[in-house]
Amino acid sequence: MDCGHQVILIKQVKNKGISLSKDITPRLPQKPRSSKVLTQKKLSEQIRLGFGQGHDSNYQPWLKIRRKNTSPDSNQVVAWMPPLGRTAHYFSRGEYHTALTLLWLGVCDLREQYPLWPIAHPHPMEGAKGTENLKFRWSRGLLAIARDAGIEHGVEFGTKIPYTATIDMLAMAPMENGLKLVGFSSKPIDDQDDEVKVRTLERLELERRYFEEINAGYFVTSSGIVSSLMAGQLEWWFDCSTLHFAPELIPRIDSFAEFISKHKEFSIVELVTAASSFLSINIEAAWLLFFHCAWTQKIDIDPTSRMLTSLPIKPGGIALRSKLRQKFFGGDWK
Questions:
Q1: pTM to 2 decimal places
Q2: Strand residues in the chain grouped as ranges (E)
């Protein structure tokens, strides 16, 4: 969001405490354990700092993990994400694994803890790379959506300021017919407390209606979107996803992948050792190239099967990636 939008936001916070003119009304993250309440000053400061705004490496999540808001139940992750070029904040291991999977599929923009602003605001794709000449329909805001659905929207703790909901993940995929936006929600939908369960389902329904109104996809999962085994394999390969720390190896990628693909009858360790000799690089560099090619699927490897380096490569990753792309986004990718 540019400075002009920020000025509009800050000024409009003073009108009725929440209303907006040409943009959104965000809030500070809800802190149920704190006696401090949201003030207009704090709200304006969050807007000025750009929380919940931006794209790609410039995006700042609306909620960030700090020592004061850690969870006793979830394994939270704050990690540098090479394909995003920034540090990301995931409030559960399932969210992190979802992010790994979406990046492995090749999404071009991935924003976590994205705010679904309560008041009318620009479409989430506005300002994204590749959308400069496109016009998007604004969202009416979650307050209007909740009113139409007959669902209570909710307010910030200790205030009358509308609560700002967030979607766990907002992904854009490069499709043949243009960019496709999909929201991903990871929620504890099997809670034993009936009252909590009803409220959770209400929040999910509001999310569904929000994405329907802006003509975007929406997917719900109770945890990660892939198995723990697959997530673990992707995590193993992920550090080498861009080879940002070894740019001198990038020109060797295609030659390395071609050599490996021609000799798949040998074990992985034999292949990597032979490729190291063939390309005149050290064995450590050869392994970096192998993990990069596994992540990008320049070498077809099935991430749902445990990869044992003493055995030959088991293919299937390319087909799986195509299947998951179709499942979550539909259509053909560029």
A1: 0.84
A2: 77-81, 86-90, 109-116, 165-175, 178-186, 217-221
